[in-house]
Amino acid sequence: MTISTARHYSIDFQYQVISEVKEHNRLLSDVAKQYGISAKTLYKWVKHSDTHKNETRSEIVSEIAHLQQKITQLNQQLQTMAS
User: Which residues of 10-42 are buried (b: 16+ CB within 10 A; e: fewer)?
Assistant: First the structure.
């Protein structure tokens, strides 16, 4: 029988720790040691946050393109109605 040693950290805690690495330019290993988490866990969090950020940016860019098309379409309809 194996006992799980996995811990569950709150999202707020994860963001705080990731911020120490990314925004304050601290070494990942130092931050992990300070907060008592493994460097491997922190690395995964940082990597995931980068991936999530890129996905979010991609979704925003896609939404902007869609809205620009919609604006163009509505402007054309408005011009047609005004003629």
Answer: eeeebeebbebbeeeeeebeebbeeeebeeebb
